[in-house]
Specification:
The protein is of the alpha/beta class.
């Protein structure tokens, strides 16, 4: 019986085209580091360190630790100098990026509140490449920052990233829940549907669909506004 709902954030709950958003994110963040290095150099180092974090398989190091070890080595500057610049950006500049998402009132909060009322628990299974502050800031853009998520997968806490199946295994281990009790809800046919490899049911949200070249197929597929009907069906059919 499905009891736990794992939600992707960007392109699922948050109405945003990630390519468009990341373009402006990189531009804004690059400006914060302009006194230390040229924009192109910063972007190259940042993307390389993010790639290192996403592909790392070391269960002993958090994503945060992997990123900082790699990034400081690339730019040849200490974390004590670089981290305050990141923190300042996330607190003062990052909130302004809200203007690059679809600002029309969306259904996310209503859907999540109804799911809670129906007895589901909520897990924010966003790819943990951002610090928790930046994740909660994006949640505030859809007025969902105060909801009782059982877990928010940030880069401070997690040791793996999507599409590594170990990312989902870590969620299960942290919450002490079986895979058959979970439904992963997301818009990426690789990063989100890979949850099926560990036995988690999946639902593909198609509003901001990211289609990859793979053979993964969801158990359900719908627009975000249609998700309550899917959850209603699941609630009525405990054997799913």
């Amino acid at each position: 019986m499905i009891k736990h709902l794992l939600f992707d954030l960007d392109g699922t709950l948050l109405p945003v085209d990630m390519d468009f958003f990341l373009l402006h994110y990189m531009q804004a963040l690059s400006c914060s580091f302009s006194r230390l290095m040229p924009e192109k150099q910063f972007r190259r180092h940042l993307l390389a360190s993010i790639t290192k974090m996403v592909t790392d398989r070391d269960p002993a190091r958090t994503n945060e630790e992997v990123f900082w070890e790699d990034f400081t080595d690339r730019v040849q500057r200490p974390r004590s100098e670089l981290e305050p610049i990141f923190n300042c950006f996330y607190h003062y500049e990052f909130p302004g990026l809200k203007k690059f998402i679809n600002n029309r009132p969306g259904p996310a909060r209503k859907i999540l509140e109804q799911a809670l009322q129906d007895g589901f628990t909520l897990i924010l299974a966003t790819n943990p490449i951002f610090p928790e502050f930046a994740i909660k800031e994006r949640l505030s853009w859809i007025n969902c920052h105060d909801l009782p998520f059982s877990l928010i997968t940030s880069f401070e806490r997690m040791h793996f990233c999507k599409p590594n199946p170990d990312y989902y295994r870590e969620i299960l281990d942290l919450l002490k829940i079986p895979p058959e009790s979970c439904l992963m809800i997301g818009n990426d046919t690789e990063e989100d549907l890979i949850a099926s490899v560990v036995g988690i049911k999946t639902c593909l949200v198609t509003d901001y669909l990211i289609q990859r070249d793979n053979n993964l197929r969801p158990d359900f597929s719908c627009r975000l506004t249609e998700l309550p009907a899917v959850l209603g069906k699941i609630k009525k059919e405990p054997s799913i």
